[in-house]
Each structure stands twice: as C-alpha cells, then as structure tokens.
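ENTRY TYPE: protein
CONTENTS: sequence, structure tokens:
***
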Amino acid sequence: MSYINANVILPKELVGEIQKYVQGVNLYIPKLSDKQEINSDYKDELYERNMEIYELFQSGNRVSELAEMFYLSEKSIYRILGQMKK
C-alpha cells in the first residue's frame, strides 16, 4: 500500500482539522461503496420530494390531491407531513 501526504491532496483547512485529532500517524480513510453512494442519492431525492409535498400542503393543497399527484396513499402523505414538520 502506498501512502500520500495529506498536504498534497487535501485542503489546508481540512488537514488542520484532522491534526486536532491525530498527528503523525498513518490514517486509513475507507472508500465509499457504490451502495452507500446510491443510498445517499436516493435519500436526497426522497428528501426533495418530501419537501415539495410539505410546501404544496403549506400552500393549500389537500392531502387527497397530494396523494394522487405523487402516487402515494393518504396515510403516506400524512406520515411525510409529520416528519417534515419536525
């Protein structure tokens, strides 16, 4: 395994933050798996959709309209609204 000096590839500010926790040691940073990246993208898409549902509800749309618009059950819309209100 070859090592790369963090100062070569990371921003100076980030190296400074890491040095607050460890200095002069070999540090392994694991690669994100493809599954983690896909899950992250999917979560972002869901959050955007749920935020849109919440905003439409706030602007006066009824739960039944939102359920039809997003192909979800009314129960799912209520669950999303409850989560987004927090």
User: Anything to note?
Assistant: DSSP finds five helices and no strands in the chain. Residues 6-85 form one domain.
